[in-house]
Amino acid sequence: MQIIVWFIVFIFILTFPKLLFLLIPIFIIWNVMNSYAIAEDKKNNQGRNFFSDQALKKKKEKKEKEKKERETISKNEEYLKLMPREVTNLINKEINTIRNAYRKSIKVDSFERKNYEKFLDEFEEYLIETSETLKSINKLHGYTSRYTFIVNESYIKLYDSLERDYVRLPHDGYASFDEWIEALNSLGEKKLKEKKGLIFERPIEFIENKFKEIDLGMTYDPDMDPFEYERFCANEFKKNGWDAEATKGSSDQGVDVLASKNDKVLVAQCKKFSKPVGNKAVQEIVAGIKYYNATIGIVIAPNGFTNSASKLAEANKINLIHHSEIKDLE
């Protein structure tokens, strides 16, 4: 544009040389105004570019935020689907650890009623500490302990301590939408709502059945501990037609196994000693016979008995046997 203007001025000067003194100030004024206009235009363009860049930046940030939210929702759903399986696997894998805790914390009263309160509290803490999926969910949402487990005899549920409500699992824990619809139709909406947050049903029943399953497959092992030996002996009684249970320790009155068959009631001490068993076990089972009003008293040991124990047992009509002889008891 400026080249054209200069060309026109040049032609004009050649044509009218006497008017040169008038053209020079006009040209200077025009050039100044043009430079100002160019500067303003550049400034406006910069402003427009700035706001355009800001708008693009916000749009990009919004897209990234939406993408992150979608990823969080997807990851959260994935973790929630994994959780029931993880809890089941954890119980199966750590059943011996759980059994030790169960044995130490379960209280049984005189009517053989079990108090699970202490065990359930400790089991809840154990699940919270060991569940990697629970830790992952908390980390995903930027917390350390917002999400937790609530455990009782009836269920294990996932709880949101911030919202103070149970967390709804995908399809309420059912494997698919079709299964959820089937459950909705059969249970009704009210019953289905009770399943909110449900990770595992009847954990105590499942754990105790697991114990029985393990006991049924037990064989004698020289390295088994005394408690395992008691369960092994109780199971040997069951295999041979007795209704038998290993007692729970503190309230057993010196009896490790209580068994019955027909009209007979049997009490037994099971001593997993590396040397012959002495008088004390015989004395305890004599007291156990009176306490349980039993008809038969025996002491079971894999490594025999002292002469003194044998004489005391004979005087009190107590049978001293090896566990392999349980099958011969009538």
- pLDDT averaged residue by residue: 82
| Percentage of residues in DSSP E strands | 5-15%
- Helical fraction: 55-70%
Amino-to-carboxy terminus distance: 122 Å
Structural domain tally? 2
- Number of distinct beta strands: 11
SSE order: HHHEEHHEEEHHEHHEEEHEHE
Main sheet characteristics = 5 strands, mixed
Describe what this molecule looks like in 3D.
The protein is an alpha+beta fold and 330 residues long. It folds into 2 domains: 68-205, no CATH class; 220-328, Trna Endonuclease, Chain: A, domain 1. Helices cover 57% and strands 14% of the residues. The strands form 3 sheets. Strands 7-8-9-10-11 form a 5-stranded mixed sheet, with helices on both faces. Strands 3, 4, 5 and 6 form a 4-stranded antiparallel sheet that branches. Helix 11 links the parallel strand 10 and strand 11. The N and C termini lie far apart (122 Å). The model has no long low-confidence stretch (mean pLDDT 82).
Structural features:
57% helix, alpha+beta, Trna Endonuclease, Chain: A, domain 1, 330 residues, 11 helices, 14% strand, 4-stranded antiparallel beta sheet, 5-stranded mixed beta sheet
Quick summary:
The chain has 330 residues and is α+β, with helices and mostly antiparallel strands. The chain has 2 domains: 68-205, no CATH class; 220-328, Trna Endonuclease, Chain: A, domain 1. It contains 11 helices and 11 strands.
